[in-house]
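Changelog note: in this version the structure field was regenerated for every chain. One regenerated record is shown below for reference.
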Amino acid sequence: MFEVYQLCDGHDLVLLQEHWLLPNELQLLSEVHADFLAYGASAVDIGSNILVGRPYGGTAILYKKTLSDHISPVQTDDPRLTGIKINTRYGPSLVLSVYMPTDYHDEDSLERYVEVCSKINALTAECDIVDCIVTGDFNCSVGSRFYNNFVDLLNVNKLVCSDINKIPQAFTYCNGDHSCTSWIDHILCSKAIDADITEINVLYDYISSDHKPLSIKIGRVLNSVWEHIESSNPPFVTRCWRSVDDVLKIH
């Protein structure tokens, strides 16, 4: 949990995937940092009052309290997607934290991937927005089985993959013994937002997860009504955090 706190210290928004929290534990996300609030979704079904196996999945967005008057939650009806709408200088902008299905090399995996892509397409079409950022664990690298669907998602929503375009070589996932790496976490942006990105990095020093955070800094993103807010932090960071739930339970 300390590394999530550190991410909050250095950013205005922190996007999490796989926080592993139960529905009745989501309020813990707003307790990570004194200056942050959170909005998230749990992937765990506790309707039967019996939890089988470990908790899993879930997405969330942590945001600075100073921005709360300009942020509203977006209903996604899918724990793989957490969304907020922000009033920026571009106009209303959608920010989505996504955790896409894993490829188990079967047709069900592909169908689930296409289904989540369709939900993203619907959200961007139905929300009253001018730009958007879709970021998180896409479980997709260049040349992988889902890559064509990933490209279709970019094209339908007129987005660009900012990390691939701006970082010459990187990895965002590393297995336990460091024998395998891949670049499966991405930041997709509308072209206007992408043009204002001043810095983008993979934060390799973070070690609590097998995924490495992606951090971006966007110049002049705030609306003029936010000019009183003092912020020198990169506005966005995305992180897959498979150990958050264990730490929160210990706490």
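Spot check on this record: The CA atoms of residues 140 and 146 lie 6 Å apart. The radius of gyration is 17 Å.
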